[in-house]
Design goal:
Two copies of one chain form a homodimer. By secondary structure, the first copy, chain A, is mainly α. The first copy, chain A, has nine helices and no strands. Helix content of chain A is 63%, strand content 0%. The first copy, chain A, binds a DNA duplex through loops. Chains A, B: This is TetR/AcrR family transcriptional regulator.
Amino acid sequence: MGGRREEILEAALAIADERGLDGVSMRAVAERVGVTPMALYRHVGGKAELLDAMVGHLLSALLPPDRSRDRQEPQRWDERLAALARAVRAMVRRHPWAAPLLFSRPAVTPDAVRAVDVIYDALIEAGVPDREVPRLERLLSTFVIGFAASEVSGRFTSGDPDPRGHRGSHPEGGFPAHARLTPWLRLPADLATEFEADLDDVLRLIEAAAGR
Amino acid sequence: MGGRREEILEAALAIADERGLDGVSMRAVAERVGVTPMALYRHVGGKAELLDAMVGHLLSALLPPDRSRDRQEPQRWDERLAALARAVRAMVRRHPWAAPLLFSRPAVTPDAVRAVDVIYDALIEAGVPDREVPRLERLLSTFVIGFAASEVSGRFTSGDPDPRGHRGSHPEGGFPAHARLTPWLRLPADLATEFEADLDDVLRLIEAAAGR
DNA sequence: GCCCATAGGTATACAGTGTAGACGTATACA
DNA sequence: TGTATACGTCTACACTGTATACCTATGGGC
């Protein structure tokens, strides 16, 4: 059975959560499973395939079990999209190592396609013309993944922490707009509410695209 | 002088362009410079710092030389933002290896801060309230970098190439929205015009935020 | 009972990685 | 002349992914 494969995957996930993606070496995974490194190759094709399987595993937990055909979806389209977006962000925050992989690996696993289908469905219900649906799906998912990736990789938080002394303006007027915005740049930027505001804006963008 | 450091950087850039980011090993760079691997450590602190310097080098070429105070910026705010966005996309397409690094390394180099300042300035001119400017800068840059990264890493192009036989619907009605959109999913998705359409939408989003 | 194919695991080995540490040398300044 | 500093080399270490070869236990057909 594929029980062993599952065991390997769980071990790799645990190591990634504990020690980061760099900690996931074939030897480390093998040791955790209690087996020789080369034994892994019988179950996963290699390191690349192992990484793919890891993100696939995470994606499979994104959506609730597929009862979408049994019962009517309760929420409005925008609430469904927002819920999915929040789920992605939460997943990336729990497993920061997954962020770079989400960009490189295309969504080909059945679970990933299922998620895309949920987005398509919501966009159609929103009134987006069929022709525009794939584009707006890519726009939305790019933003959500990009936000989460930026967040966990420090691209947002460590940006420009009061540069060059505590006065607002840079030496010799280097960055005038920064100077003017100093009071707002000083705040630590609550990323949870920022995500909600962004999400709101993007959903309005979709509404606008639907009404054309 | 730092001439040697520049030489090392150029060598690393050239290797990344030719053989990808994985080709950039200390040994490879050293060989190209004509020196022993350990000699690099006198000029760049280590591999991580080398990578940082590489993206810094690319960013420094993004904006025209700083004459922003000599002459008035000619274009409207939205044209300026669009130009910068297109420049980022072009840069990533020319140097695909840079995409993942742009997400992880925060914008702390002077050139990066200068680019952010340009965006701030445009957003202010657009009429965005000061309080909202940093957020919308992050939203815009996240989208632009995310789009470019997705594009060069194959997240867009290799998505679902007519899955499971050439009929639109999946076996046993797995993905209804996919089925409905089949005609549009079949097109190869012109990413250049898609980028322009997205950009247009995001700039409208900014306009909407300005008018509140 | 016998035989053998197959699945799963092990041992060894190879080429490559980043970099710590010790050592050398040449130039510039006191 | 002496010495400090910048720059480079050499060696070595602890890793990485994985190709290859070998071993072992289990199950099915005869």
